[in-house]
Amino acid sequence: MAAQGFKGYIQVYTGNGKGKTTAALGLALRAAGRGLRVFIGQFLKGQVYGELASLERFSPLVRVEQFGRKGFVHITENPDDEDVALARKGLERCAEAMTSGSFRIVILDEINVAVHFKLISEDELRAFLGRRPDDVEVVLTGRYAPGWLLEAADLVTDMVEVKHPYQKGIKAREGIEK
């Protein structure tokens, strides 16, 4: 599966603005269009999102697995043991995909949020990145990316919210925000 001369990098999409997951999915679609295989692990997500139905059409080039409970996860200071177990299982599954030789790109969607709320430790994420083969691109999304990760990444995009319809009380719309 190794592409001749392909060098993988670490990308981070973070910030409080909309578009982090969307940017990662755009990269997945671009890669699939060139015949590259992509693994997407979604942390804190166990519900149906519009992108899941679309991405099914790109199988087997794009594979998506979710590592979260059904419904929205509300975490404050003490995460639920079930959320921790699902996140750790997800990180291990992403590590398996990353080291399998089957995927050129591995996307960890909302991993930064999982680390921020201590579902996964920063040391666990560092160890994960330390296992990254040179020919695998890793993309980490979500608010709250830790400073060391921003420093270690090759590409960092900080999504800044300037204006959003929810500020006017408009709820998430099917096909647009969900």
Polypeptide structure, described:
By secondary structure, this protein is α/β, with parallel strands linked by helices. It has one domain: Rossmann fold, CATH 3.40.50. It is built from six helices and six strands; from the N terminus they run βαβαβαβααβαβ. It has helices at residues 20-33, 50-56, 81-99, 111-116, 122-130, 147-152, and strands spanning 10-14, 38-43, 62-67, 105-109, 137-141, 155-158. The protein has a six-stranded parallel beta sheet, with helices on both faces. The chain is globular. The model has no long low-confidence stretch (mean pLDDT 90).
Features of the shown structure:
single chain, 178 residues, alpha/beta, Rossmann fold, 6-stranded parallel β-sheet, globular
Strand-helix topology:
Blueprint: E1 10-14, H1 20-33, E2 38-43, H2 50-56, E3 62-67, H3 81-99, E4 105-109, H4 111-116, H5 122-130, E5 137-141, H6 147-152, E6 155-158
Parallel strand pairs: 1-5, 1-6, 2-3, 2-4, 4-5
Q: Which oligomerization state do the chains in this entry correspond to?
A: single chain
CATH topology assignment: Rossmann fold
Count of β-strands: 6
Give the low-pLDDT segments.
none
Biggest β-sheet description: 6 strands, parallel
How far the N terminus sits from the C terminus, by CA atoms, comes to 33 Å
Number of domains as seen in the coordinates? 1
Percentage beta strand:
15-25%
Brief description of this entry?
By secondary structure, the protein is α/β, with parallel strands linked by helices. It has six helices and six strands, in the order E-H-E-H-E-H-E-H-H-E-H-E.
